[in-house]
Every structure is written in structure tokens, then in C-alpha cells.
Amino acid sequence: DIQMTQSPSSLSASVGDRITITCRASQTTSSYLNWYQHKPGKAPKLLIYAASALQSGVPSRFSGRGSGTYFTLTISSLQPEDFASYYCQHSWTFGQGTKVEIK
Amino acid sequence: EVQLVESGGGLVQPGGSLRLSCVASEFALSTFWMSWARQAPGKGLEWVATIKQDGSEKYYVDSVRGRFTISRDNAENSLSLQMNSVRAEDTAFYYCARILVVTDTDWYFDLSGRGTLVTVSS
Questions:
Q1: Partner residue facing A32 (CB), from B46, B61, B106
Q2: Does B103 touch chain A if contact means CB atoms closer than 8 Å?
């Protein structure tokens, strides 16, 4: 099975900051990589599919890039509602998650 | 509103059984592959099981295979997870999720429920 490794596991940032989360696959996934946001007590929310396609209704400050084994999720200007955990996913496997906290 | 709502969670003793349910609203569950995923306390998301539209194919993570059974009732627009021989490590929030298939090796979860908590403890 392909393993997905995210970094960092957590980060502290301020409203308005630009942040980037990375996801590395143990073998190529082509462009099949998806990103989710998850808040406690809420449903996981699809943000990006196929590495760079923005899911309907997701703000344009979220963007995804990458192919093969290296992918990134960028939030261009953090908003208060963006403090959450973020996960990459390919096939059956999720990354271990990145918790974005308020500095 | 298009949504998934889980129910059936609770406290269960090790070795016991529990059945989780998920009801779909405002869309036909029969047209989608469906999954269960979970999040244990302090841990990340983990895929648990997946079922094809007609129930003819089912897949499980190794840690639950032989103990959990995923099923669906398309007439009732519902999905279930029968959990038998539960263990402490099965303690988690369990989420029902709708799948959009891209290829036979790629898919994503485009809609999830808010989850139901299963606690395995004596």
C-alpha cells in the first residue's frame, strides 16, 4: 500500500498568514491526491481533489499543487474559520494530519 | 439539504457488538459507492470499509476484516456497519462518507456525516 506522509504535524499561524502543508507519497499517485479539512464535531470537508481542483463552494484562498509523489496545500490568507486539521488522501490511505492552530 | 446522518454509537464492552447506521437525505444513495471512516481520540482519519452501489463488492481495512460488516439498504437510502468482537482500539468517531470514483485506483469522499461516537470499555 502507498503511504502518505504529511508535514508539519502541527503549525501555529496568525490570521492573514500564508501557510503551506506538504504531503509525500511513498510511490507515485499520478495526480490522484485529495485534501480535507476537519474540525472537532464536524463532518470532514473535501477541499481539493485531483491535486489541484477546488471543490465547489470552497474559498479560492485554498489551492493545491503537485503530482507524482509530492503535493502541497496552500492557504493564501488564513481566516479564523480555517483553524482546523487538514488531511491528504489517496485511495484507502490518509496522511496523519496537520493541525493548524492560532498563534 | 444533501446530508448524511449517522446514529447507533455508544458504550460497548470489549468483545461486544454494535450496529451503526447512516441515512442519506436529498440524494439517492443507490448511485454511489459508500464508506465508513473513523477517527480515534488524538489520532487522524482512517478508512474502515467501502461498499459498491449494489453491495456486490466490499472492502475492509485489515484491522477490522472478519469482525465488521458493511451493508446497505438502497430502498431505505441507508448504510450500516455491524461491529462484532469490538476492541478498545475500535474506540473512535465513525463517519459515513459518499465516494466519487475517478478511476479503479482513485476516488475521493465528497460528502461526509458528522459522525457517531463508539466507546469500547468495560
A1: B106
A2: yes
The residue of B57, B63, B108, B109 whose CB has the most chain A CBs within 10 angstroms, and thus the best one to mutate to test that interface, is B108
Which of A48, A23, A10 lies closest to B110 in space, CA to CA?
Answer: A48
Residue given cell 492552530 in the structure block = A101
Q: Tens digits of per-residue pLDDT, A61-99?
A: 999 999 999 999 999 999 999 999 999 999 989 999 999
The answer to whether residues B105 and A29 touch, using CB atoms and an 8 Å cutoff, is: no
> Which residue did the predictor score with more confidence, A40 or B50?
B50
pLDDT in tens, A11-44: 999 999 999 999 999 999 888 999 999 998 899 9
Contact between chains at A91 and B105 (C-beta distance less than 8 A) = yes
Please give the residue of chain B at the shortest CA–CA distance from A49: B108
